[in-house]
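We modelled the chain as a single entity of 178 amino acids. Its sequence is:
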Amino acid sequence: MLAVLCFVGGSNGFSNPFFIQAKPTLPTAKPHPMHISICEIEYDEERKALEITQRIFLDDLESGIRIERKNPELDLLKPGNNLSTDDLVKEYLQKHLKIYIENREMTYEYIGHEIDGFALYSYVQVLKVKKVEAIKVVNDILLSLFDDQVNIVHIAVGEEIKSLKLYKGVSTGTLTFE
């Protein structure tokens, strides 16, 4: 069950909280004409952190995880066996998304995920990043599953925004910033 905290204005001007419970459902998967993921990496200079959002079609991600775990019946939103969706997504990202700053592989902290329509958004962060002059990204998400898979990576450092287009045969890219 999904619990959502809502607020309604009361007669005294204060908000009255209440919960709505809803059963999350996976949208009916329809074949889509392309296989793409979008990774957005933003350097927060004040926090000295990389904030990373990875957006993937939910049905494609579920297929990729099913194949890797050799479990064709796995339901990504209700995996069972003492596993959570976050466990599975975190494990998959750790294998398929690597970030290097100044040629040093960074360890990132998995924050969580959310579902929006047909997409799964996952959130991770890299802490204690003093500066970003060069960033290397290895993103081979779903490349072994779909020949036409494209992984777009947008990186924002200060006022500069640069992008990478990664695909089968080219799963790594490096960008430099002033």
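As a brief sanity check on the tokenised model: The CA atoms of residues 34 and 148 lie 7 Å apart. Residues 34-176 form one domain.
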